[in-house]
Amino acid sequence: MIGSVFRASALALGLMAGTLAQAGEFIVVQSTTSTQNSGLLDHILPAFEAETGIEVRVVAVGTGQAIKNAANGDGDVLLVHARAAEEKFVAEGWGVERLDVMYNDFVLVGPASDPAGVRGGSDIVAALSAIAEVEAPFASRGDDSGTHKAELRHWQSSGIDVSAASGGWYRETGSGMGATLNLAAGMGAYALTDRATWIAFANKGDLVIAVEGDARLFNQYGVILVNPEKHPGVKAEAGQRFVDWLTGADGQAAISGYTLDGQQLFFPNAK
Amino acid sequence: MQNFAQEMQAAFALVLAGDSELLGIVGLSLRVSLFAVLCAALIGMPLGAALAVGRFPGRRAMVVLVNALMGLPPVVVGLIVYLMLSRSGPLGVLQLLYTPTAMIIAQVVLVTPIIAALTRQVVEMLDAEYAEQMRSLGLSRLATVPVLLWDGRVALLTALLAGFGRAIAEVGAVIIVGGNINHVTRVMTTAIALETSKGNLALALALGAVLIGIAVAVNALVSLLGARSRAEALAHA
Questions:
Q1: Nearest Cα to B15, choosing from B4, B3, B5, B27?
Q2: How much is the average pLDDT of A10-31?
Q3: Contact A59 B180 (CB under 8 A)
Q4: To the nearest whole angstrom, how far is the Cα of A59 from the nearest Cα of chain B?
Q5: pLDDT in tens, B8-42
Q6: Which of A7, A43, B18, B135 could form a cystine bridge with A258, CB 3.0-4.6 A?
Q7: Domains (range + CATH), chain A
Q8: CA-based end-to-end distance of chain B
Q9: How much is the pLDDT for B207?
Q10: Nearest to residue A142, comparing CAs of A152, A133, A129?
């Protein structure tokens, strides 16, 4: 009874507010903050929308949350960067197929004063060990995002248990890349970030790139159509067109065409 | 540090120039929050008045509950509404997630307790004052509700403004159920959160100043209406 009343009033509310919503075909893409905050999606999506008439609505959250939202059926396409989690998503049946889209790399940024003496290096694991050695402040995403997962892998390689240092020199912000960089800039901490967000970030303070160029800092993005057999509400046809476009010649060219301050932020590598 | 004065100027220049992007965001903020306050008033005012004049078991407990719900954390409301509206949730078939309607629903949940609690207080005071008089006119307790609500209309405007302030300022709920989608569900507060995460602190602050300006304008308008209504009431007295 109460349920049906709530349902009816929600419906009525929906009808009354109907004028607020926009008409036309659209898909919801669950993606990560790095693709949005770097300006990539704003740059490439208009071309797809003009070509197909399909509006792309982007929900930009951490990779972990994006994957959970997609598993709930609250999105048609998933565009994230955590390969193991993506493959698990497909293996569990939530996604149809995982395809490579593009890559860039992670960089370790830190204060110009460089208390751990790691600046200019290209070995991420050695750098993290040095940071832990002198207990220099380190700002972690701590939010199960793609960047957070990558960071934890490198800590694991270094054999350091950061959970013991949590709240001390190791600070978990539990928020997005931008918020974490704001905190790192404010307290002079080191942080791992994807290069795209870093280049586009406007509040660097005295943070500079400390470590880059390690092959282990490779950052691959993948795209997955949410499985319409699991969630009949998924707009499979429109979603598939977006996946095809993104991994096809036009989408790939659009990705490599996006530059900021003369630097290319993402490198297409769809097969 | 970035140049705040410059960014402020740039933001206000955008407003004055009628920048369609910014006006769209401001317009959506106002439409969502005003509509949410309207819905919350339609639920909260009768509820608050009933709590004030009603005499039924559990009334005290309900008053305490409604007062406590004024402090509902927006993130929790956002999460609950998300779980309800998700495709996997009980109301998923309505496909309301990531729409302005979802944001309105979340804000109604947040604002209704505020309006109900403040209404209860206003009506309770009026009821204490006029109860005997009304009873002598042969009005039942329930029948006095519309009379008391009308009598307290100026004070109730403050309840509406408190609700509006909560709705227009919150970010935790609308960012979860709206998704901060450009041109669809992006409002002032989620735009501020986005610019902050891009490190555009000055622009974020300038947008905040615009938001405060809107709040001041709405409050001034309501205050004018209230003053006029009070003057009319005095003229009729």
A1: B27
A2: 65
A3: yes
A4: 5
A5: 777 777 777 777 888 899 999 999 999 999 999 99
A6: A43
A7: 25-103+220-268 (3.40.190.10), 104-217 (3.40.190.10)
A8: 59
A9: 87
A10: A152
Q: Which 233-252 residues of chain A touch chain B by CB within 8 A?
A: 233
Supply the pTM of this predicted model: 0.87
Average pLDDT over chain B reads: 90
Structure tokens at B196: 């902050």
Q: HSE (CB half, 13 Å, CA atoms) of B132?
A: 1
Chain B: give the shortest CA distance to residue A159, in Å.
31
CA dist A186 and A206 (Å) reads 9
Domains belonging to chain B, first-starting first, are: 4-236 (1.10.3720.10)
* Cα–Cα distance measured from residue A66 to residue A147, given in angstroms and rounded to the nearest whole number: 13
DSSP assignment letter at A68: H
With beta carbons less than 8 A apart as the criterion, state whether A245 and A51 touch: yes
Q: Which of A14, A36, A59 sits opposite B96 (nearest CB)?
A: A14
Instruction: Grade residue B57 by pLDDT with cuts at 50, 70 and 90.
Output: very high
Spatial CA neighbour of A145 closest among A95, A171, A183, A180? A180
Q: Who has greater pLDDT, A212 or A2? A: A212
Distance of CA B41 to the CA centre of its chain: 9
- Bridge partners of A109, per DSSP, are A191, A209
The tokens for B37 are: 């306050």
Mutation target to probe the B interface, by most B beta carbons within 10 A, among A27, A35, A69 is A69
